[in-house]
Amino acid sequence: MPIQEWRPGAGLHALRARAAMLADLRRYFADAGVLEVETPLACSSSGTDPSLEPIRARYTGPVFPRGRGLYLQTSPELGMKRLLAAGSGPIYQICKAFRNGEAGRLHNPEFSILEWYRPGFDLEQLMEEVADIARLALGQPKLASERQTYAGLFESVLQLDVFDNSAEQLQELAIARHVLGAEQLQLDRDGWLDLLMSHLVQPKLGRERLCFVSDYPASQAALARLNRDGRTAARFELFFAGIELANGFHELVDPDEQAQRFEADNCQRRAQGLRPIKVDRLLLGALEHGLPDCSGVAVGLDRLLMLRLGENEIDRVLSFSLQRC
Amino acid sequence: MATYSTNEFKGGLKLLLDGDPCTIIENEFVKPGKGQAFNRVKIRNLKTGRVLEKTFRSGESVEAADVIDRDLQYLYSDGEFWHFMDNDSFEQYQADATAMGEAVKWIKEQDSCMVVLWNGAPIAVEAPNFVSLVITETDPGLKGDTSGGGGKPATLETGAVVRVPLFIQGGEKIKVDTRTGDYVSRVKDD
After folding, report:
1. Between A104, A182, A300, which is nearest B29 by CB?
2. Does the domain formed by B67-126 have CATH 3.30.1330.60?
3. Taking Cα atoms as reference points, which of B88, B73, B55, B85 lies closest to residue A197?
4. By a Cβ cutoff of 8 Å, what residues of chain B touch chain A?
5. Which three-class secondary structure state does DSSP give residue B85?
6. Ramachandran quadrant class, A3 (left: phi over 0; alpha: psi -120 to 50; beta: rest)
7. ipTM
8. Do B172 and B181 form a contact (C-beta atoms < 8 A)?
9. Which of A105, A185, A244 comes nearest B57 by C-beta?
10. CATH class name, domain A12-144+208-316
11. pLDDT one-digit tens code per residue, B124-142
């Protein structure tokens, strides 16, 4: 049997479309005066988010003769924030990010991210720019966009008040809405919200227009600052054709709160039987020094390319996905 | 007790769900960028044939079902059970009417069938895709009509009734597609 897996999953037209998309994006940012940067893919620390599992690597040799544990980044966020604190001004990066345990129709453990930061931008301004970038990458310059809040969306689709329901009540709703298997699942409140979002809400989002969902519950703030109401976070996501494309924050700048969130994440990791992550004291140092008020966003480029080309599987836009690499 | 983690899920994997053996038809990994990962799985219950969807939390383990597919030869029916034999081991198995399902309509002694065994007992029997059977009864054909349009009912030696073209006569052997119950062609014995 001749070896077949050497062939790329992406056709030549997809490789060309990717190159054209990257060129368009770089031209956009050059014109907008946003600096292209690179930060290390392999770092001594990583984000602590319990829902993101890094892939671990190890360096041994000069400087670290006994070896040093490294994480392949789950996103370039931590390094880019250190550049912002050092006075870089607006920056963007096109790079690979890695997430252990994620492979499927819309996931490959190694994937391409476009991430950028805008000092002085609030979320409204950043969402407008994200819409422009999405139109550019999708090749649909006239695409309309709409805004929803997370709470408003759950209210209109599920008649549910996201702030006033226990895990048990959310489970009852999932069962009543025929999410089969919900009877046997054991999840916390945010886990149930994720289930309702991914099974019942998200598939309807972004039909023929870009759909921004903002003001996530504070418990899902990740690295966003909290809004003044104290119960929502300055975080948004972009959906198109039912697919999640981008995640943006009005960035948390307070080093104490950042340290507390790292610690809380690691507590949750231990409780879930996950390995804790070495806290990034270099980021905390940068926040102590002072991160400018800024908003930042990460966009999944492979999924944008899928949508642009009408492909149904991420493998069709990657040269060599997990099964071929 | 053997189990599978959701990471091992793929088409064809056999699971025990609510006490019934099931096979995975389709497995989709669903995960928000920041949030809980799920496996959303389309499953066929091998006893009832029903297809359903079920969501698992990624990383969970699910009990495996001891299910195997085996090619067995149909020997005979005693009215209550249909008896099969494995031609390699000469081991015999008996299937009840529920396990036989539609296959009852199509198979004759000596035919070879795909039989699904759960814990060593048949739970489903699949007739071969095409079978050749003799017509025991049908209205006399119209001479010279070879158009095949319209058609008429014909009873086969197994008792099944299929629609055949008007020119087909009683006593002839025909080929039938068991998946649709459609007449395919005449069969000429040599």
Report:
1. A104
2. no
3. B55
4. 7, 28-38, 40, 52-59
5. strand
6. beta
7. 0.91
8. no
9. A185
10. alpha beta
11. 999 999 999 999 999 886 6
